[in-house]
Write a structure and sequence with these properties.
Blueprint (H helix, E strand, L loop, with lengths): L2 H15 L5 H4 L2 H22 L1 H21 L4 H21 L7 H19 L4 H9 L5 H4 L1 H30 L3 H10 L2 H28 L6 H14 L6
C-alpha cells in the first residue's frame, strides 16, 4: 500500500469517528423548519387581508429578512439563499398569473422534476441518496461496488422520489381546484414533516452501508506498507548466514 493509500485510509477512519448528524440537524434544525414555513404563512395571511400585491411583497420581504438574520447569526447561507430565490420565483409567478395560487406553481413542478431525477438516478445505478451523502462526507464510491449497499441507497432514493411524487399529485390537485388555503397547508405539512420520514430511510441506508463497508475492509487481506516491506526484507537478510565465495 502506498503513502496516498495510507492517507486515504486515515481520512476514512477520521470520517468514521465523526458522529452522524441527528435527523433534525440534517433538516436544518428547528430554525430550518421555521425559515421554510414563514414566507408561505406570511404570503397567505397578507394575501387574505390585504390582497395579492401586498402578499407578494410580504413574502419576499420575509425571505430577505431571513437571509439577513442568517448572515448576522453567521449561520449557513446556502439554505437561506436557495430559499430566497425560491420565494422570489414563486412571487414572480403569482404576479404574472395574477392569482394567489400561482405562488405555489413553481414548487409543484419542482417536485415533479425532483421525482424524475431521483428515479432516473436509480435506473442509471447511481442513486442520488448515495451519491450526495458520500460526496458530502468524502467517502468515495466504494458503496457502489457493494450491491447490498447500493440497493439500500436505491430504496432511500425511491423513498425521496415518493415524497416528491406525493407533493406533486396532492398539490397539483389542490391547485386545479383553486384551494389556495389548503395549498399553503399542504406545502407546509408535506414539506419537512414528510421529508423527515424519507430521511429516516436515508439514515438507515447510510448506517447499513457504512457497517457493511467497514466489515469488508476489516475482512480484506492486510496489504503491507512500503515501510513494512522494507523492514521485513531487512530482517530476512540479516538472519540469512553469509555464504563464502
Amino acid at each position: 500500500m502506498t503513502e496516498p493509500a495510507k492517507d486515504e485510509q486515515a481520512e476514512r477512519d477520521e470520517t468514521e469517528e465523526k458522529p452522524e448528524p441527528t435527523l433534525l440537524e440534517q433538516m436544518g434544525g428547528v430554525s430550518g423548519l421555521f425559515y421554510s414555513s414563514l414566507p408561505v404563512i406570511v404570503f397567505v395571511l397578507a394575501n387574505a387581508f390585504f390582497g395579492l400585491t401586498v402578499g407578494i411583497w410580504a413574502a419576499v420581504g420575509s425571505a430577505v429578512a431571513i437571509t439577513v438574520l442568517r448572515v448576522v447569526r453567521k449561520e449557513p447561507l446556502q439554505p437561506a439563499i436557495s430559499g430566497f430565490f425560491g420565494v422570489a420565483i414563486a412571487a414572480f409567478i403569482a404576479y404574472r398569473t395574477g392569482s394567489a395560487k400561482g405562488f405555489f406553481l413553481f414548487g409543484i413542478w419542482t417536485s415533479l422534476a425532483y421525482c424524475a431525477v431521483m428515479v432516473v438516478s436509480v435506473l442509471a445505478r447511481w442513486p442520488l441518496a448515495g451519491v450526495v451523502w458520500n460526496l458530502l462526507n468524502r467517502t468515495g464510491t466504494d458503496w457502489r461496488k457493494d450491491k447490498p449497499s447500493r440497493f439500500g441507497y436505491d430504496i432511500a432514493t425511491l423513498a425521496l422520489a415518493a415524497v416528491f411524487a406525493a407533493r406533486f399529485v396532492v398539490q397539483r390537485w389542490l391547485y386545479n381546484e383553486d384551494y389556495t388555503g389548503w395549498l399553503a397547508f399542504a406545502k407546509i405539512a408535506m414539506g419537512y414533516p414528510l421529508y423527515a420520514l424519507a430521511l429516516l430511510v436515508v439514515v438507515w441506508a447510510v448506517r447499513r452501508s457504512d457497517k457493511r463497508l467497514k466489515a469488508l475492509r476489516e475482512a480484506a487481506p492486510h496489504e503491507e506498507t512500503d515501510a513494512e516491506v522494507e523492514e521485513r526484507l531487512r530482517a530476512k537478510y540479516s538472519q540469512t548466514p553469509a555464504t563464502e565465495a
